[in-house]
Write a structure and sequence with these properties.
Oligomer: single chain
Radius of gyration: 21 Å
Bound molecules: flavin-adenine dinucleotide
Helix content: 25-40%
Strand order of the largest sheet: 9-8-7-10-6-1-4-5-11
Order of helices and strands: EEEHEHEHEHEEEEEEHEHEHEHEH
Strand content: 25-35%
Distance between the termini: 48 Å
Length: 322
């Protein structure tokens, strides 16, 4: 069976959910081979085996430390040349897209970014992309070289393999130095932890817009997100009004999210906002204007004042959860 190279990211040995999603997709295309940065611990190898990875390639970080996307790209390109995989799968996002672009250039191969589905086709993997603000689904395949495909987080539900495997672990060193032109990391500091999931990876997103009314009102959005264990998002109006940080902006000029549940409070549903959330599985909108465009794409809509609806919703959810 053909190998599928999967770039796996983890936090201290805990595999990030988008990487588990990639492994689930990879099993539909062939035999997943996980590529991880650094020395994998037993627990990490065990989890990879439970998700069907028959091989784990561990990249030995170069000395002195180099720009990580460049390191990952060199390792993936080298492995792709050696193993002739059916595809290289990487999670979408700023870092993943950079790694994928570098791999495709190195392999002189085609690339498809931000796929929402990947299936096996007679002439290689077929990737589905959601385009034009989520109004069209486009299927495409790479016609030259090893397909390099980035997949949007939350596109599939991660599932363990039907039967776990014991992966073979191979440590690999870079076959060539990281290019001099690569950026050099001069300092890094961890972001203050909010305890909430990452916005682009969350299965539940609660987003607030201008209708929230104030920075204090935005706390209601945060409370609902915490009640549901979700991430907090916002429209551009809410971030421009500095009710929340710009990194929470969803839309054409913000982040793209595709959670299982997207809850919008006080967001009108402008096309630029929809561009970043239209791929959500279930959309719930709370807006006091029954003609707000968000209701055109909502699966469930509540016409009402969010200051009344959201506290009632939080109470109800809390009660049901005991
Ligand atoms: P509004 O459009 O003002 O809507 C507020 C809504 O809240 C209204 O529907 C109102 O009925 C409702 N409301 C008011 N009070 C209450 C209440 N008490 N209870 C319930 N509902 C209430 N926008 C983005 O979001 N993301 C982007 O990435 C983005 N990129 C852009 C790029 C460009 C080039 C341009 C031109 C615009 C972009 N915008 C973007 C802005 C976008 O056009 C809208 O202006 C913005 O999305 C509106 O935000 P909003 O829905 O919060 O505010």
């Amino acid at each position: 069976m053909s190998t599928v190279l999967v770039l796996v990211h983890h936090d201290d040995g805990v595999i990030r959910k988008p990487s588990l999603e990639l492994l689930t997709l990879a099993r539909r295309l062939g035999e997943p081979a996980a590529v991880v940065h650094g020395e994998p611990g037993d627990a990490l190898i065990d989890t990879l085996g439970r998700h069907g990875a028959t091989t784990v390639y561990a990249i030995a970080p170069p000395e002195p430390p180099a720009y990580r996307p460049a390191v990952e790209a060199l390792a993936l390109a080298d492995l792709a040349t050696r193993t002739a995989p059916v595809a290289v799968l990487i999670s979408s996002g700023p870092s993943g897209t950079e790694v994928a672009a570098r791999v495709a250039v190195k392999l002189d191969a085609g690339i498809i970014t931000d796929a929402v589905q990947v299936t096996a086709g007679p002439d290689g993997p077929v990737a589905t992309q959601s385009v034009f603000a989520g109004t069209w689904l486009v299927e495409g395949r790479v016609r030259r070289g090893t397909p390099v495909i980035t997949v949007r987080p939350n596109a599939v539900t991660p599932e363990p393999a039907p039967a776990p495997v014991s992966p073979a672990v191979e440590r690999i060193a870079l076959a060539e130095p990281v290019p001099d032109a690569s950026p050099r990391v001069v300092a890094s500091r961890a972001k203050a932890a909010t305890g909430r999931p990452d916005l682009t990876e969350a299965t539940v997103v609660v987003a607030g817009g201008r209708g929230v009314g104030s920075a204090e009102g935005f706390a209601l959005i945060e409370r609902l997100a915490d009640t549901l264990g979700g991430a907090v998002g916002a429209s551009r109006a809410a971030t421009d009004l500095t009710w929340c940080p710009h990194e929470l902006q969803i839309g054409q000029t913000g982040k793209t999210v595709a959670p299982q549940l997207y809850l919008a409070g006080g967001i009108s549903g402008a096309i630029q906002h929809r561009a970043g959330m239209q791929g959500s599985r279930t959309i719930v909108a709370i807006n006091k204007d029954p003609k707000a465009p968000i209701f055109q794409i909502a699966d469930f809509g509540v016409v009402g004042d969010l200051h009344t609806v959201l506290p009632a919703l939080i109470d109800e959810i809390s009660q049901r959860r005991g």
